[in-house]
Amino acid sequence: MFVPCGSGGSASADFRGFTLLMPAVSVGNVGQLAIDLVISTLGMTKVGYFYTDCLVPMVGNNPYATAEDNSMELSINAEVYSLPPKKLVVLQIRSPFIKKKSRPFCEMLLSWVQSSQCARVVVLSSSHAYQRDDEQLLGTPLRYLLTPDLEQTVGGLLQELKWKEMEKVVAYLGIDDTEKVLHIPGGGITKLLFTESCSRGIQMAVLLKFCSEGDNIPDAFVLVNYLNEWLQLIKSNVNVSSQWKIPSSWRLLFGSGLPPTLF
C-alpha cells in the first residue's frame, strides 16, 4: 500500500487526474534507468513509499543526491515521487520480486491506481532482443501497447507519431500459425499489468524497447526520449538527450573503472 511521508502528509498524496509513470523490472533494467532520468531531470519530490512484502527488501543512500547534506538520506525498494504542476506521479521500483509475489503486487498496485483516481498509467519496460520474431526484427526496436480505454483517447496521436504497436506472435509455431498471443519475454510483470488493466478498465500504456543485458544506459536514453515524444516532459529539440540530468547514483553504476596503473 502507499504510505505518504514528509510534512505534507496525506495532502501530498492527492493524485486525482495524474499520470502514473512506473517501470517494470525487466531485461537490462531499462525502465528503471529511464525513470531515474525523469526523476532527476524534473527534480521530483519524494512524497511516499509503496509498502509491500512482494519485493526483495533493500535500503541505500539517496540516488538523486545533489549535495552532501542530502546524500545520506535513505531510499528503499519502492518509492513515490510527485510533480503537481505536470500532474505527474512516479513509482520507482529498485528491487526484483519475491517468487510468486508478482501477481499480488500487481493487484495491490492497480487497486491503488483506482482508489487514488490516477487518470492513466504509463509503464516503461523492455524485452529480450534475441527472442524477436521476423516481423519484430523490422524497423525501430521501440514498441507500445494501449489498453482499450486509453486507445480511445490517445491512439490517434500515437499513430500520428508513427509509433509501432507491439506485435502478437504465433502461439504454437509450426502447429497452428493462426492463433497469436501477446508475448513479452524478459518483460517481468509487463504483460500481467497490461492484461489486468484491460480487464479492469484502467487506462494504461506500455512503452518498451528490445534490448540485451549489458550497459543499458544508452537504451534508457532511447526509451525516455520515446516517452518524451508523447508526454513532452522536457522541451524537444534535435539534442534532447543532452537535456536529461544523469543522477549521482549512476557514477559507479558499472564500477569505478580500471586503475590507471594497469595500463
UniProtKB/TrEMBL annotation:
Q: Which InterPro entries match?
A: Proteasome_assmbl_chaperone_2, Proteasome_assmbl_chp_2_euk, PSMG2_sf
Q: Does the keyword Phosphoprotein apply?
A: yes
Give the keywords, sorted.
Chaperone, Nucleus, Phosphoprotein
Q: Name one Pfam family in it.
A: PAC2
* Single GO biological process annotation from the record: proteasome assembly
Q: Which domain of life is it from?
A: Eukaryota
Provide the protein's localization.
Answer: Nucleus
Q: Which GO terms describe its cellular component?
A: cytosol; nucleus
Q: Kindly state the subunit structure of this protein.
A: Forms a heterodimer with PSMG1. The PSMG1-PSMG2 heterodimer interacts directly with the PSMA5 and PSMA7 proteasome alpha subunits.
- Sum up the protein's function in the record's words: Chaperone protein which promotes assembly of the 20S proteasome as part of a heterodimer with PSMG1. The PSMG1-PSMG2 heterodimer binds to the PSMA5 and PSMA7 proteasome subunits, promotes assembly of the proteasome alpha subunits into the heteroheptameric alpha ring and prevents alpha ring dimerization.
Q: Which family does it belong to?
A: Belongs to the PSMG2 family.
Q: What is this protein called?
A: Proteasome assembly chaperone 2
- Organism taxonomic ancestry: Eukaryota, Metazoa, Chordata, Craniata, Vertebrata
